[in-house]
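Teaching assistant here, posting this on the class forum so everyone can see the example we discussed in section. The complex has four components, and the goal was to see what a joint structure prediction looks like when all of them are supplied at once.
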Amino acid sequence: MANRKPTSLDIAYRAGVSQATVSRALRDSPLVNIDTRKRIQEIAEELNYQVDRSASSLRSGLTRTLALLIFEDAPDAACPINPFFLNMLGSITRECSARDYDLLVSMQNPEEDWYARYEEAHRADGLILLGYGDYIDSHPTLARLCENGAHWVLWGPRLEFSQASYVGCDNRLGGYQATQHLLQLGRRRFAFIGSNAPEQAPEFADRYIGFRETLEEAGIDPAASTQVFAESNEASGRLAVQALADRGFEADALVCASDLIALGALHELKKRGVDVPGDVSVMGFDDIEAATFCNPPLSTMRQDVTLAGATLVELLLQQLEAGSFESKVMEPKLIVRASCGA
Amino acid sequence: MANRKPTSLDIAYRAGVSQATVSRALRDSPLVNIDTRKRIQEIAEELNYQVDRSASSLRSGLTRTLALLIFEDAPDAACPINPFFLNMLGSITRECSARDYDLLVSMQNPEEDWYARYEEAHRADGLILLGYGDYIDSHPTLARLCENGAHWVLWGPRLEFSQASYVGCDNRLGGYQATQHLLQLGRRRFAFIGSNAPEQAPEFADRYIGFRETLEEAGIDPAASTQVFAESNEASGRLAVQALADRGFEADALVCASDLIALGALHELKKRGVDVPGDVSVMGFDDIEAATFCNPPLSTMRQDVTLAGATLVELLLQQLEAGSFESKVMEPKLIVRASCGA
DNA sequence: CAATATGCTGCATACGTATTCACGGCCTGG
DNA sequence: CCAGGCCGTGAATACGTATGCAGCATATTG
C-alpha cells in the first residue's frame, strides 16, 4: 500500500496537469475541459483520494459542518438526554447527511462561550441551538450575536429581533387545543402541570396561556382550575401530582406541559390508586415514543420532530448560503389515545 | 467591534513577541517563560482569541474530533433511530466533552467508504462504529482497515483479529440468565424471538446460544421450544408473534432478542387477548426507557449504556494516544419487572 | 490580416498554525 | 578568562488546498 496519503499534487503529477487544475476539476468547475475533468476524477478515484478537510477549510473559510448544541439543565452523566431532543437529533443528522454537511454534536452549558468555541474557532459554519430558548437571560446574548453576524438557528420560542431564525411550535394553540379536547370530554376541574413562568420556560408558559384561554372561553370558574410547577422530567411530574394532592385540589383533568411530566403523573396516580382515564384524564405534549407504550397510552399534542429537524437545517443553510433570515412556526396536532377517555 | 477575527499574529504584535512564542504560550509550553506565557494568555483572553481549528489541524495533523457512525438497516427518514443507540450517543457525547474532544455524528450506509470519508479526509482522528458488527460481510473490511493503521472502535460482537478494539456485552451470558429466570418461574414452553443467524445478527445469535444452553441444562424437551425470526424493531416483534401463533406453537415464555421486539410482542399479545404475565412471560434485552413505561413493565437484561459509551471513547483515545489496543466485554444485568410474573 | 474574444491551463500566493533549527545571553566550572 | 551548557526566543518553513491573475492557443469578427 501507499505509505502516504495522496494529495492533489500526486494527482496532478499523474494527470500531467497542475495542482490548480486538479483542485478545479474535483470541484467540477466548468473552467476545466470536460475530458480533462473526467480523467482527473478517475485518477482521484483510483488513488482513493480524499480532499483534506483541514486544508480545504483553511483556504476557503468554509467547513461544511454544522454544530448542534444541546443545552440541558442537568448535564448529569446519569440523567438521559431529553428524548424529544434525541429524536430531533436523529432527523437533523439525516438532513445534514442528505445535504452533504457534517454534524457536530455537543452538550453545552449556557454559561460557556459556545459561539466562540464553535463558529469563531472555525469548527462549524453555523449552529443549531436546542433547549437554549429556555434561558431567558440568554436573549441579550443572542441579540449581540446577531449584530456580530453569527450564524445560528434556534429551536423554541419566538424571538423578537429580526435578523434571526427560529423554528418552533405554536405552543399557545397547542395548549388551547389540548384543553379544548378535555373540555369536550366533559372535564371541568383542570390542573396545568408545568412551569408557567415565561422567564423560566417560555414554551410552557405559552401552553399555559392557551390553557387559560380555553377555560375563560368556557366560562369555567377560576377556582376550579390550578397550576403546579414542574420541570420537564418524569420525577418532577410525580412530585407535582403529590403537590396537587397535598394542596387538596381534586382535578379531573391534568394538562401536562410535556410528555415526560405526564409519564411521571401517570406513575404517581397509579401508585395512589387513581384510575386514568376513569377518575382523571391526563394529556401530554410532544408525542415521544414512550407515549405509545405507557399505560394507558397517552393522548398528547404531537410536534413533528422530523419536519422540525429538517426545517432547522434548511433555514440555517439558507442563512449561510443566501444570507436570508426566515423563521417557521409549526402547528401541533392532537393525538388521541386512551389516557383521556375519548 | 473588530472587523476581523484576531490571529496569533495579532497577539504576537500586542505582546511584543513572535508568533511562534504565542503558539507555544497558548499550548502552555514550558519552553516559554512563565511570565511571558501568562501575559500572552491574558492578551488572548482579552481579544477573545480562538485558535483556528482548520489551521491547527492542517499543521498538526490532529483534529481532536471523533466520529460516531451509526449503521442502520433502514435509514428511512420516518423511522426513528434505535433508542438504544440514541442513549449510547448521549453518553458518548458527554464523555467526549469531558475529554475536550468534539464529536461528529453521522448515519452511515455500510456500503459507503466511511473510513476514507472521515479518517482519511482528516475530519476525525478516530471512529466509533455503532451497529456495524451486524454486517458480517464487513469483517474483512475491518481487518483490512486494521492493517492500514485505521483508528476505530466497534460496539458489538467479539472480533477475531488482535489489532482492534471493541466493546460489547456478554450476549451468551445474557441469553442464558434471561432464560434461567423464566425457567425458575416455572415456565416450560419457550420461544426465542429474533434472528439466530450469526451472519445476520451475531449478537442475537449469541443470545440464542445462551437460550439453548439453559434449556439443554434443564433437560427441556427440544420440541417444547422454538425460534422465530425478527429484526430489532417493534413491527417485526408483532409479526413474529403472529408467525408463532400461525405455527400453532403455544409458548408460555417469550425470550425476545431486544426490547423493541418485546414491545411489539406485548402489543400483539394484548391485541389477541393473551394475558402477560398470566398466560405468557415476556423478557426483553437492553433496558431502554420504554421498558419501564410499557404495560406491563418489561423484565429485561440491562446493558449499561452510560458505561458502554464512556468505555468506547476511552478505548479509542487510548488507541490514538498510546497506540494500544484493548477490548472490553460487559456483563448484562437482570432487571425484574412485571412482564414475567416474578 | 489585424483585432478581439473565448476556452483552458499554470503560476504564484494566502489561509493560520505548529515546529525545527539556530542564536544570543547568561551561568557554571575549570 | 574561556569552554560548554541551558534557557528563552525568533526566523523560517511546511501542512494541502483554492483562487486571482496572467498567458497561450484557437476561434471569431470586421
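For the discussion questions: Chain B touches chain A through 52 residues (CB under 8 Å). Chain B has a mean pLDDT of 92. Think about how each of these relates to the inputs above.
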